Amino acid sequence: MMNKWKLIYMLLFLPMAGTTFSQTVQSHTAQISNQRKPIVVDLSLWKNVSTWRNDTVGSVCLNLGVLSGMNNLAGVGINILGSIVRNDACGLQMAGLWNLTGQSMCGLQIAGITNVNGNNMVGVSASGLVGINGNRIRGLQMAGLVNINGDDNEGGSISGLMNLSGNQTKGVQLSGMSNITGLNFGGCALSGLVNAVGGDAAGAQIAGVSNITVGNMRGMQLSGLGNVTGGTVQGLQMASINIASRVKGLQIGLFNYYKEQLDGFQLGLVNANPQTRVQMMVYGGNSAKLNIAARFKNRLFYTILGAGMPYLKFSDKFSGSLFYRAGMELPLYKRLFVSGDLGYQHTETFKNRHIGFPSRLYSLQGRINLEYRLADGVGLFVTGGYGWDRYYTQGGNYDKGIIIEGGIVLFKY
After folding, report:
1. Burial classification of residue 355, based on how many CB atoms lie within 10 Å of its CB (0-12 exposed, 13-18 middle, 19 or more buried)
2. Distance in angstroms (rounded) separating the CA atoms of residues 303 and 297
3. Quick one: average pLDDT of 352-357?
4. Can you tell me the distance from the alpha carbon of 290 to that of 271, in angstroms, rounded to the nearest whole number?
5. Lower CB count within 10 Å: N or C terminus of the chain?
């Protein structure tokens, strides 16, 4: 009876054992096959005219040809026209026109027109026109026109026109026209025109025209025309125009503006914020006879930009001046205020230079002002001061003396 039950158990167990054995053999065979992927030499006239078919499993260690296609490259590939690797390339890939890698590239790519990587690139990619990477770069990407990276860039990008990263950049960007990062940037960006970051930036942005950061900027922004930061600037902004929501540091420019908060200092011809009052000043005096100016007034400090004419007598030919002043105002009694400022004035005498007057002068001036506010939008002021009119081309004063002025202030205090 016992032998009968043993026989039954054996008959039930045999199919299961056979299946397990078959799976084990297949797995072992696959491992052996993977371990024995061939490494070959490929000589190619064209993509399908070669000593090694591009759909064959294995890697090519040496590829020489005109236009080549291969599964993997692990070594050196040199082609007159182009090189196409379906999967990964590791080593040196060089072509007269283009290199195309379907997956990842590690090593060195050199092409006359373009390098394209579908996934990651680690190493150096150099092309005459365009370098394109679908995912991540770790290394150096160089192109004559444009570098495009779909995701992250860690390393350096150098291009004649533009570097474009869809996500984050860490490292150095150099371009003739613009550097654009879709999310965050950390490092140094130098461009001939514009640096733009869609998120936060840390490091240095240097551009010929403008730097734009949508989020926060920690570091330095330098440009010829304007710096714009949507969040907080923690560091330095230096340009003709500087704009930020919040500043923790220094703004230096012709026009500086913050929207919410300043924890630092603004140095410029005009420093403004949402509370800045812009007023018109119309007045006469003995420096320039008739003057009109705009005053940008904050709580205590103000700056003035204006023009006056004539500098000489009304009977002389036309002459005029441009001036800038900066000062501070304090309340004296109810509607009466006292202020003091220092200024610079440039004077042009135009056709009067032919009758014995200097063609142009500059003046250093100091003033004390008393101002009485008649209403919320109207005020009267008188000024007493002293000025030195000096030559641009030689030392010494052309004239000096007391300044007396008086006039009206318009628009809301």
Report:
1. exposed
2. 7
3. 79
4. 26
5. N
Distance between CA atoms of residues 350 and 340, nearest Å:
31
The two structure tokens encoding residue 163: 């570097």
Beta bridge partners of 364: 344, 388
| Rounded-to-integer distance, Cα 77 and Cα 327, Å | 70
The DSSP-derived string for 178-247 is: EEEESS-EEEEEEESSEEEESS-EEEEEEESSEEEESS-EEEEEEESSEEEEEEEEEEEEESSEEEEEEE
Question: CA-based angle 221:163:83, to the nearest 5?
Answer: 160
Q: How many residues does the chain have?
A: 413
> Which run of H or of E encompasses 12?
helix 2-35
In this predicted structure, the answer to whether residue 200 has a pLDDT above a threshold of 60 is yes
CA distance 256 to 243: 6
- Rounded-to-integer distance, Cα 158 and Cα 188, Å: 12
* C-beta separation of 141 from 111 below 8 A: no
> Letter for the amino acid at 322?
L
Q: How many C-beta atoms lie closer than 10 Å to residue 323's C-beta?
A: 20
pLDDT in tens, 244-289: 999 999 999 999 999 999 999 998 889 999 989 999 999 999 989 9
CA distance 45 to 61: 17
Q: H or E segment at 17?
A: helix 2-35
Domains of the chain: 38-167 (no CATH), 183-272 (no CATH), 277-410 (2.40.160.20)
Q: Is residue 42 helix, strand or coil?
A: strand
- Token code pair at residue 225: 């025309």
